[in-house]
Amino acid sequence: MSSAAEALPGPSITTNNAPANLDDPANVRRWLQENHPKQLALLEKFQIDLRLGRILSSTTPSGGDEAGSNIGSNSSTHQKYQYGKERRLVTSHTVELLRSIIGPTRWKTAAQLLTLLRGLANELHDVGGYREPAIGNMVRRVMFIVRDEADNFPSGGGGGGDVESKNMEKIDELSAQVSTKLRVSPSSTSAPGRGKELSLASMLWAHPQHVTMKHSRQQSGEGISDMRIRSDSFGSTDSGAVNVTSSNSFGCDTAATQIYPPHYYMQWDKLRENVMEAIEEVRGELKDLHKNINDQATQHIHNGEIILTYAFSSTVEWFLKTAAAKKRNFQVIVCEGAPHFGGHAMAKSLAEAGIDTTVIHDAAIFAIMARVNKVLLPAHAVLANGGLVAPSGCNIVALAAKQNSVPVVAVAGMFKLCPLYPHEGQDTLNDLISPSSVVDYSLMGDPVLSEVEFVNPVHDYITPQLIDLYVTNIGGFQPSYIYRLLAEYYHSDDWD
Question: How many angstroms separate the Cα of 230 from the Cα of each of 158, 233, 262?
């Protein structure tokens, strides 16, 4: 008989006095409270720091120096400018949080671990994680690691003969029910005598990841009561089929828990060890992120070029400083980036490094673009269609560059790659902040200004047609190749 901790993940009917299981992402907080209070305290501390913005101004969790410090980075300048802070700190803290929670907690299977991660993603999303897409990206990246390890599950391995035999019985039962459900009922076919044949729809949705099951509470804590597949919704009239709402995006309540392939419910002793090793590799990748980007600087910046950039970005700053340190002689034009004027801090830092730097008003972008050889833009997020979410004002830079046939290069780490599509246009991953940086509130008594609506967006969405190249820590890619990178970093079931 399985214990509560070994119960298969799936929605269950529980009372307030019943122990919480890893059967639903909504139960993760209560499960941590009952079984792992120390890990819950770490989660709550991270949530408070994220809500108050403390993570951006803290030190790197690993305690190491920031990449690029050896090329003259000015940390005090970073802290003074709000939108130039080291966003990699958020990513590093997120990975450290996931490592600290995944390691000591008593999950048993890949399915339970995925449920735990999805619950953590919901918790971080609810406290403002949606404003920093890198947080969700790191959770998806770890979920991809878990799925990859589970898919490589050895058929001969496991946590003992008894456990393995029980798991195999559950998988055999699940496989038999899947095979039964893949048969289309006679009433759903027009031709008589063809009710036992596979339909095109059932063949397309036969993969286990598309199976959705309805669970009822079992006294024994194990077993699967009823199930249906997505193909049942296409014309099947089976009276036993029950509609179940699929899982929703991070941060949203779900009516049913996502069901995973059968082998995700098997126990494997080395799963925890392999996942922790893969997380350490991700931490190492983040540590070397700027170094890998900066190594490509001389491939894109040449002697005598005039480079235009917008506002402040630590990634672009270190990229330019690395090219200058490698004896590249070039000139940089920095747009001031009103109303936050991050370009002033950027120009000061570049000038101190010995780079010929000029600051211009944003209104002069189109006039100066004819003299520019290349545009370097920072990135807040890289979207699934190859579009770019960048600081507000970058869109006019990209449009001016397109008009003058100037190549636009976006410099970004792969942790900014988001499996999201810009269905909301300019509102995608955007946020509106106080207009106090645009107009003084003391002037609002003026009868004319009082009728004016001030909109102060944080970001711009730039279409992929305006971007020529993405320079990342794993190489340079065109926007049309981004969809391939998504498949290498995230599982399609975790995109939402």
Answer: 31, 6, 17
Confidence band of 40 (pLDDT split at 50, 70, 90): very high
Task: Say how far apart CA 477 and CA 486 lie, in whole Å.
Answer: 12
- Residues 408, 428, 476, CA angle at the centre, nearest 5°? 30
- Asked if residue 422 lies in contact with residue 381, where contact means CB atoms within 8 angstroms, the answer is no
Q: Alpha-carbon distance 176 to 382, whole Å?
A: 42
Alpha helices in 288-358 (DSSP H): 289-294, 297-300, 314-325, 342-352
Return the number of other C-beta atoms located less than 10 Å from residue 51's C-beta.
13
> Quick check: 431 and 459 in contact, CB under 8 A?
yes
CB 391 within 8 A of CB 414: no
d(CA 455, CA 446): 18
Q: What single letter denotes the amino acid at residue 144?
A: F
Which residues touch 271 (CB under 8 Å, ≥6 apart)? 109, 110, 113, 149, 150, 153
CA separation (Å) from 305 to 256, 276, 362, 410, 435? 56, 45, 21, 17, 37
pLDDT value of position 283:
93
Confidence of residue 230 (pLDDT cuts 50, 70, 90): very low
Taking only the tens place, the pLDDT of each residue in 168-219 is 555 555 555 545 544 444 344 343 444 444 555 554 544 444 444 333 333 3
Q: Longest Cα pair distance anywhere in the chain, in angstroms?
A: 83
CA angle in degrees (0–180, nearest 5) for 145-148-152:
140
Query: Could you tell me if 125 and 94 are in contact, meaning their C-beta atoms sit under 8 angstroms apart?
Result: no
Residue 339 has pLDDT above 60, yes or no: yes
3-class secondary-structure state, position 397? helix
Peptide bond before residue 9 is cis, with ω within 30 degrees of 0: no
> Within 13 Å, how many C-alpha atoms sit on residue 313's CB side?
25
pLDDT tens per residue, range 429-452: 888 888 887 888 888 778 888 888
What is the C-alpha to C-alpha distance for residues 156 and 148, in angstroms, rounded to an integer?
Answer: 18
Q: How far is Cα 210 from Cα 207, in angstroms, rounded to an integer?
A: 6
The CA distance from 355 to 306, in Å, is: 11
The reported pLDDT for the residue numbered 253 is: 43
Q: What is the DSSP string of 176-209?
A: HHHHHHTSPPGGG-SSTT-TTSPPHHHHHT-SGG
Interval 244-269: pLDDT, tens: 333 344 544 443 456 788 889 888 88
